[in-house]
From TrEMBL:
Upper taxonomic lineage: Bacteria, Pseudomonadati, Myxococcota, Myxococcia, Myxococcales
The species this protein was found in: Cystobacter ferrugineus
Positions of the Radical SAM core domain: 41-278
CDD domains, per the entry: Radical_SAM
Name this protein carries in UniProt: Coproporphyrinogen III oxidase
NCBIfam families referenced in this protein's UniProt entry, alphabetically: PRK08208.1
GO molecular function: 4 iron, 4 sulfur cluster binding; catalytic activity
A GO cellular-component term linked to this record: cytoplasm
């Protein structure tokens, strides 16, 4: 029996792959290279600028993001000052740069007050040279932290996409994942966001929560559609180490696959196009505007504690943690750093040529598919020769090959969280398995 066949005999929910290698494969880099050397040979015509705000009003029971709940105001201000120092040093190292996208995430960016939000956008525009009025800009918001003044500030700075984590419109379900959320407040916030005229509203929902049924899951989807979101992301519940749910002594599901299929079929019947396992896009969604950005090929500049940056050869970030004490310690150390200290890359992963090819292949396959000519043009070799294991996906009906591309079938898409980890290289798997959660 092959490794894929063994994995197919278990849960389809192994791990969500949104980047490769995963952050748990990062380690201290010694000697630490300079920012200038890391970016020296990189294309800088279509970079993604990401700014991370590692604060929330609360930590949800399923959350393993790098964030601290309920920070004091002096901690927030100290962080923003350090973010300013980092932005200046990074821009110095990058030199002339063109950005294709801007995103502000976390955590919860709208935990910041209006002045704090303007500080973040001032950094993007005045320090980094990324004009929010000319580029697609996405910001994460939450029902508990958004108000009319913050919404007006975001619109005034050119934000054209807001993403809100609702998770469920049933209070009993969100309570089961330690999220004390009131449906009336959620609906009021969604009304506010719609009335503000953001071209794209995204709503995040979660399936697989305790006591959730197909009926209640579809009820949440119907509730979401009342606000005509341009995008919907459907996330399976993951129970991860050190989270509130991860500490509960119980077995978790598995009805997630049935709920996924019910949600997928419902949204398709309502005219939504499935873009990936998680993402669904409405007919009325605006065309994606701005410069072309391809995550397989173009770099990312991450600013802030918890943000990751990607070049072709080096991926790097601050250290990662989930536990409250460790997260706060890392944020405190970040906030004390000098501008000069941000000129070194001390923690990350160096991709050799084999890992660069693998990253391109995995990220392509889990999105629009592996375009064979694009792979050949970039690497000078054939994707299916470099990765003969891909033929096994066809054998099991998980992918279909045409002369132009290899793309996942519906059966493959619903197993994206298995296929991604299956394709990890052995060195990356070993690093991830050796990671010490804290």
């Amino acid at each position: 029996m092959t490794r894929l066949e063994t994995m197919l005999g278990g849960s389809p929910y192994v791990a969500y792959l949104y980047g490769y290698p995963h952050k748990t494969a990062y380690r201290p880099l010694s000697p630490a290279p300079s920012l200038e050397s890391v970016w020296a040979r990189e294309r800088r015509e279509a970079l993604f600028l990401y700014l991370h705000i590692p604060f929330c009003e609360m930590r949800c029971g399923f959350c393993n993001l790098f964030t601290a709940a309920g920070p004091r105001e002096d901690v927030v201000q100290g962080y923003l000052q350090a973010l300013t120092r980092e932005a200046r040093r990074v821009k110095e190292a990058l030199g002339p740069t063109t950005f294709a996208r801007i995103a502000v995430g976390g955590g919860t960016p709208t935990l910041l007050d209006v002045a704090g939000l303007h500080t973040v956008f001032d950094l993007a525009e005045q320090v980094m040279g990324a004009d929010p009025h000319r580029l697609p800009v996405s910001v994460e918001v939450s029902p508990e932290t958004v108000d009319a003044a913050k919404v007006a500030a975001l619109r005034s700075r050119g934000v054209d996409r807001v993403s809100i984590g609702v998770q469920s419109f049933l209070e009993s379900e969100v309570a089961s994942v330690k999220r004390p959320q009131k449906t009336a407040q959620v609906e009021s916030t969604l009304d506010l966001l719609r009335s503000a005229g953001f071209p794209t509203l995204n709503i995040d929902l979660i399936y697989g929560m305790e006591a959730q049924t197909e009926e209640t899951w579809l009820a949440s989807l119907r509730a979401a559609l009342r606000f005509a979101p341009e995008e919907l992301y459907l996330y399976p519940l993951y129970v991860r180490p050190l989270t509130f749910l991860g500490k509960k002594a119980r077995a978790w599901d598995d009805q997630r696959l049935a709920l996924y299929r019910a949600g997928r079929d419902f949204l398709r019947s309502e005219g939504y196009t499935q873009v990936s396992m998680r993402m669904f896009r409405a007919r009325h969604a605006p065309a994606v505007d701005g410069p072309v950005y391809r995550c397989q090929e173009d770099g990312m500049v991450g600013l802030g504690c918890g943000a990751r940056s990607y070049t072709e050869r080096v991926h790097y970030s601050s250290e990662y943690a989930v536990g409250s004490r460790e997260v706060r310690s890392i944020i405190a150390s970040y906030s004390e750093r000098t501008e000069a200290s941000f000129g070194e890359v001390g923690y990350g992963f160096v991709l050799d040529e084999a890992e660069q090819r693998r990253r391109h292949m995995i990220l392509s396959l889990l999105a629009e598919g592996v375009e064979l000519a694009a792979y050949r043009q970039r690497f000078g070799t054939e994707a299916l020769a470099d990765f003969p294991e891909l033929a096994e996906l066809e054998t099991h009906g998980l992918a279909r090959r045409t002369p132009e591309a290899l793309r996942l079938t519906d059966a493959g898409v619903e197993r994206s969280d298995l296929i991604g980890p299956w394709l990890h290289s052995e060195p990356v798997r070993a690093l991830m398995e050796g990671y010490s959660w804290r």
